[in-house]
């Protein structure tokens, strides 16, 4: 596919989409684009996450009677399935687009591939090895622990377990709200770990990958990983159902790859490509202090002035914000020195 029909490439080879990022149309009054937005909201990402959730529900989860007590048997089984699922999903994107490079750098935001840039910040100087090991040694075990704890809580009668027969409408609404819950939860924890010492000690691990690739998705400090997956626990506080809670967690875990794909579109056939929805979070990795949340279902970044839609105007606004921040910090420093 000709990616220059959809964007531009600079002298270094970095590709930028023509179309600015847009928050959900119901916030901007663009009701004419509601239909297209809704299709993109459902298909393909959330449909795939629901299919994975149903596969877990029917094929993987043991009986809730069994999950009333913690045991290595079912928890290790869950862990094996989680690990295999991530290995298959993230691994196949890595294999086709980063190892075989079947699409070259078409639609790729950063023309370089992480394997070309060894760096001391990574274990074994390799972003790929570092990110892969952190995913499998730290993040997936913590995901399994959070998942097991919430399922154990449901099995033991904590939380308000609504039956689908009596409350199907609310549960359907809740499934549609799950991506919005994710955005709010993720924005809050993410903004928090960008502050001061929390950033230096915790979140900087994830940001070592300035040019993210699939294995970067879950490359996190243990504290960040725990906060990230704890999103599932909201379903113990709101009237819900373990299936919806599982959808929340599955979309968080498998969906973490979305922002780290590095390509704007993934070519499926000669003339067909799938939107990756990766640009919002790619810009976050590039500029750090923009786009803490997601695609703007709940546009917290817009409301707090940290939204970057990829345009030159947004660039200028961001630079202005950084300049003011620096001025404030300098003024504070000057005040401290004067007081001493
Ligand atoms: Zn990231
Ligand atoms: Zn961040």
From TrEMBL:
Give the organism, scientific name.
Answer: Gemmobacter lanyuensis
Q: Which GO terms describe its biological process?
A: lipid biosynthetic process
Q: Mind telling me which residue stretches traverse the membrane in this protein?
A: 36-59, 74-99, 132-155, 167-193
Q: Which Gene Ontology cellular component terms are annotated?
A: membrane
* All copies of domain Fatty acid hydroxylase, residue ranges: 176-306
UniProt-listed InterPro entries = Fatty_acid_hydroxylase (IPR006694), Sterol_Desaturase_Related (IPR050307)
Question: Organism's domain of life?
Answer: Bacteria
The name this protein goes by in its record: Desaturase
In the UniProt record, does the keyword Transmembrane helix occur? yes
Taxonomy, top ranks, is: Bacteria, Pseudomonadati, Pseudomonadota, Alphaproteobacteria, Rhodobacterales
Tell me, in one coarse class, where this protein mainly resides: membrane
Any idea which UniProt keywords this protein has? Membrane, Transmembrane, Transmembrane helix
Q: Name one GO molecular function term.
A: oxidoreductase activity
Compartments in which it is found? Membrane
């Amino acid at each position: 596919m000709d990616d220059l029909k959809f964007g531009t490439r600079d002298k270094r080879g970095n590709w930028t989409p023509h179309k600015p990022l847009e928050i959900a149309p119901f916030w901007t009054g663009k009701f004419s684009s509601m239909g297209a937005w809704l299709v993109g909201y459902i298909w393909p990402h959330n449909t795939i996450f629901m299919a994975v959730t149903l596969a877990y529900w029917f094929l993987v989860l043991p009986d809730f009677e069994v999950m009333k007590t913690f045991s290595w048997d079912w928890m290790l089984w869950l862990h094996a399935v989680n690990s295999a699922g991530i290995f298959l999903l993230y691994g196949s994107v890595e294999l086709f687009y980063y190892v075989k490079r079947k699409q070259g750098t078409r639609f790729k935001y950063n023309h370089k591939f992480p394997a070309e840039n060894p760096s001391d910040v990574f274990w074994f100087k390799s972003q790929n090895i570092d990110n892969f090991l952190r995913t499998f040694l730290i993040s997936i075990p913590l995901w399994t622990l959070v998942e097991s704890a919430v399922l154990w809580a449901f099995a033991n009668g904590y939380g308000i377990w609504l039956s689908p027969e009596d409350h199907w409408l609310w549960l359907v609404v809740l499934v549609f709200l799950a991506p919005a819950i994710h955005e709010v939860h993720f924005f809050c924890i993410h903004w928090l770990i960008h502050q001061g010492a929390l950033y230096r000690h915790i979140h900087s691990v994830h940001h070592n990958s300035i040019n993210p690739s699939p294995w970067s998705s879950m490359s996190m400090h243990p504290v960040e990983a725990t906060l990230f997956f704890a999103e599932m626990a909201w379903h113990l506080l709101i009237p819900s159902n373990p299936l919806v809670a599982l959808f929340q967690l599955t979309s968080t875990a498998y969906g973490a790859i979305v922002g780290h794909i590095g390509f704007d579109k993934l070519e499926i056939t000669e003339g067909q490509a799938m939107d990756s929805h990766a640009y919002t979070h790619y810009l976050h990795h590039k500029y750090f202090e923009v786009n803490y949340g997601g695609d703007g279902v709940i546009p917290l970044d817009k409301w707090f002035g940290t939204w970057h839609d990829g345009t030159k105007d947004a660039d200028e606004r961001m630079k202005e914000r950084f300049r003011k921040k620096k001025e404030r910090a300098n003024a504070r420093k000057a005040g401290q020195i004067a007081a001493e």
